[in-house]
């Protein structure tokens, strides 16, 4: 399916953004591991999260939706009746392998073509070291045989919240110390949510470890709006003249807000208010408005806090006045598509000068972008949405293919954007 975006008047209003995808996966998985019932509000109902829902049900948990609240009843996990189809979702595959590894079960994990091309050794190696048996190469399908697990002390390099989460959840059933060292901090939603479920988690400056109390008790979890989805509406506001968009109850965990901080540094009109704690996470109201953007230089250590927002940062840089540089982008090659190549090809097709070298991108902004291209989104939801945002401010319309994949993370994207005044058809 194609979608087309074209130059729009101001993008304005309060954007309705669904719940955070990372927290939604974790709430279902932790609920499925916990004693008793967990009640979740704000769960993202997207294809990726529903793959996790089906998976935890197949492992034995009960999941039901009652008046838009989700109730999960935990269980002792058992062998699922058939393969666990993780669809397009790396988070589902990698975190579930860890969560299941300490149970007496056998499970085969599969995924779609994109997920079947993504590396899995990064999670298989440490789980095998803990004692799990994993059959298959570095790619899905992979068969896991759960075992009695030992502890681990693992350096999480390259930084991956999925790998860290897999090890912490495997560690819940392990005998021995479980420590994950992080040279560069990745999102910490698993750690925060484990504490909400009553588990003892020790956070150091550059490591996280499980304490002695590793039992989970069902609880209430309220999930904030997804900053990675809100980023599309908020970046549109930053690049379309006259715009101002507000998102309420937005998850603003500092390990997720790299893009918003970068837009602020570039000169966009950024305002944060009503900051508060919700289920252990910081949520707030964020408003971003248009202003002429300056170029920016992003060092590698800032990438984990905006790993999924790099295509959008590249779009914003294309509208800035001068040359931006973004460094440390190696991990972008291992997402739903090779996002580094997809960004270079898409921006070039839209008339933007991009120079790529190693793991860095240099984008020469000229304050305006020609557009007028048909973008191959390569089945990648974030590439599709980022280039639709570009088309809202470029001189000529932009068409993207494989727009149906947007529902893996942000069902209702086009409707939400149109409600703010975006010209997307
Ligand atoms: O843990 C998570 O929920 C996620 C972690 C990140 O992946 P990595 O762990 O591979 O960095 C991110 O790109 C993905 O969209 C979601
Ligand atoms: C990389 C992403 O997700 P996942 O790894 O779960 O497929 C994403 O949503 O951008």
From TrEMBL:
It catalyses: 3-phosphoshikimate + phosphoenolpyruvate = 5-O-(1-carboxyvinyl)-3-phosphoshikimate + phosphate. Residues 9-417 form the Enolpyruvate transferase domain. 3-phosphoshikimate binds at residues 21-22, 26, 160, 162, 308, 335. It comes from the Bacteria. Keywords: Amino-acid biosynthesis, Aromatic amino acid biosynthesis, Cytoplasm, Transferase. Phosphoenolpyruvate binds at residues 21, 90, 118, 162, 339, 382. The keyword Protein biosynthesis does not apply. The keyword Cytoplasm applies. GO terms for molecular function: 3-phosphoshikimate 1-carboxyvinyltransferase activity. Pathway: Metabolic intermediate biosynthesis; chorismate biosynthesis; chorismate from D-erythrose 4-phosphate and phosphoenolpyruvate: step 6/7. InterPro entries: Enolpyruvate_Tfrase_dom, Enolpyruvate_Tfrase_sf, EPSP_synthase, EPSP_synthase_CS, RNA3'P_cycl/enolpyr_Trfase_a/b. Its EC number is 2.5.1.19. It holds the Pfam family EPSP_synthase. Its main location: cytoplasm. CDD domains: EPSP_synthase (cd01556). It is found in: Cytoplasm. The active site is at residue 308. PANTHER family: AROM/DEHYDROQUINATE SYNTHASE, PENTAFUNCTIONAL AROM POLYPEPTIDE. Belongs to the EPSP synthase family. Monomer. Catalyzes the transfer of the enolpyruvyl moiety of phosphoenolpyruvate (PEP) to the 5-hydroxyl of shikimate-3-phosphate (S3P) to produce enolpyruvyl shikimate-3-phosphate and inorganic phosphate. This is 3-phosphoshikimate 1-carboxyvinyltransferase. It comes from Sphingomonas alba. The lineage of its organism: Bacteria, Pseudomonadati, Pseudomonadota, Alphaproteobacteria, Sphingomonadales.
């Amino acid at each position: 399916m194609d979608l087309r975006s074209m130059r729009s008047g101001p993008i304005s209003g309060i954007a309705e953004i669904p719940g955070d995808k990372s927290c939604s996966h974790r709430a279902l998985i932790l609920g499925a591991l916990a004693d008793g019932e967990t009640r979740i509000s704000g769960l993202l109902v997207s294809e990726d999260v529903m793959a996790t829902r089906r998976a935890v049900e197949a492992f034995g948990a009960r999941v039901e939706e009652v008046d838009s609240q989700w109730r999960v009843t935990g269980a002792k996990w058992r062998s699922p009746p058939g393969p666990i189809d993780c669809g397009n979702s790396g988070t589902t595959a990698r975190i579930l392998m860890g969560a299941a590894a300490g149970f007496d079960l056998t499970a085969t994990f599969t995924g779609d073509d994109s997920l079947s091309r993504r590396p899995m050794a990064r999670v298989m190696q440490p789980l095998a070291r803990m004692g799990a048996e994993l059959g298959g190469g570095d790619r899905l399908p992979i068969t896991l045989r759960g075992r009695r697990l030992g502890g681990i002390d693992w350096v999480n390099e390259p930084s991956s919240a999925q790998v860290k989460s897999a090890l912490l959840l495997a560690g819940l059933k392990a005998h021995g110390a479980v420590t994950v060292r992080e040279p560069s901090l990745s999102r910490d939603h698993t750690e925060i949510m484990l504490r909400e479920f009553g588990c003892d988690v020790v956070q150091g400056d550059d490591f996280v470890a499980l304490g002695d109390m590793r039992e989970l008790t069902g609880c209430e979890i309220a999930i904030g709006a997804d900053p990675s989805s809100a980023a599309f509406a908020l970046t549109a506001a930053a690049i379309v003249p006259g715009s101002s968009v507000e998102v309420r109850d937005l998850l603003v965990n500092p390990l997720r807000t790299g893009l918003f901080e970068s837009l602020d540094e570039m000169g966009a009109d950024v305002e944060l208010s009503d900051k508060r704690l919700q289920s252990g996470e910081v949520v707030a109201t964020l408003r971003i408005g248009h202003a002429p953007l300056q170029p920016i230089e992003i060092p590698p250590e800032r990438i984990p806090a905006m790993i999924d927002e790099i295509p959008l940062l590249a779009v914003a840089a294309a509208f800035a006045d001068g040359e931006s540089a973004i460094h440390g982008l190696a991990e972008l090659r291992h997402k739903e598509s090779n996002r580094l190549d997809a960004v270079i090809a898409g921006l070039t097709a839209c008339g933007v000068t991009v120079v790529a070298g190693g793991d860095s991108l240099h984008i020469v902004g000229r304050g305006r972008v020609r557009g007028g291209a048909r973008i191959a989104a390569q089945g990648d939801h974030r590439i599709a949405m980022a280039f639709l945002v570009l088309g809202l401010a470029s001189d000529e319309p932009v068409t993207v293919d494989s727009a149906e994949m947007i529902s893996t993370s942000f069902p209702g994207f086009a409707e939400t954007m149109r409600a703010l005044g975006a010209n997307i058809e």
